[in-house]
Amino acid sequence: MACAAARSPADQDRFICIYPAYLNNKKTIAEGRRIPISKAVENPTATEIQDVCSAVGLNVFLEKNKMYSREWNRDLQYRGRVRVQLKQEDGSLCLVQFPSHYTLSLTSCS
User: Model pTM?
Assistant: First the structure.
């Protein structure tokens, strides 16, 4: 296995993951919500998250069959995660307004 420092930030396995539970206002922090409830939305889907990130100009791809480990409900509407590229090949940010996972999550819900 290669060292994480040796891999390029542009490799798809280095993209950050966003699960719908991170942004769901119906979830508690213990259930996986990662942003303030005032910024969260009701039952977001991975497709909606992908659409928002694409509209902003980020390189994204959807993994439909992935599930968040804390999600107890296995219905299709709760499946999926979005992989988002924050850094380019040289390590610089793709978009300066999104330096981290947290800022991207807050903006996706606004």
Answer: 0.80
